[in-house]
Amino acid sequence: MGTVTTKPKKQKQTMAERANTLRAGVLGANDGILTVVGVLFSVAAATTDHFTIFIAGLADLLACAFSMASGEYASVSSQKDTEAAVVAGEARLLKDDPAAELHAVTNYYVRRGVTEATAEQIATELMHKDALGTVIRVKYQLQLGHFMNPWDAAFSSLVSAASGGIFPLVAMTFLPVAWQWPGTILAVLFSVTLTGYLSAKFGDGLVKTAMTRNIIIGIITMIIHYGIGQLM
Description:
The chain is mainly alpha-helical. It has 7 helices and no strands. It is 83% helix and 0% strand.
């Protein structure tokens, strides 16, 4: 069998890694929009002072962005640690019981309709070329040397959350008074529609469903926080 302790060279991101970074970005943007508009509507319904509204919105935008980034970093770091532990465990199994690992790879191809003789031949050849890489691919759908990057996810979430929150913040604080509320509402609806579209595209989901869901959530968020501001 091939060597199981080779150190892989630096490689380009896989599709899964890119999708994870994009997912963090889309979720960050959506949270940034809804969190900031919640604070803006609550404060703007209670006071007409533009400076107070702007400071409250800006503070929430920054808090949301860094909160999203730290959450993504912690989440993806845990996933990366789990993947690394899986690889280390399979490396030990290859040393202690290589026959069982070969059998697992053989069964992988048998379950996909390959005859046992052919499956064993394929497994033997693959294990000879790259034993560890083959095992983690067939057993866990992982690619050796391609762990999820928590820094990429954190940065994507940080930037997108801040960017998403800017739309309602600018609309509420810089538009003329006559356009302040309708302009902010339109900015929010446009933003959540865009994030719904992007999330569906990146996740191979239903575009209309995702967009409609985000619009409904955005409207409910605005109503709730406007009511809170009125009560205050």
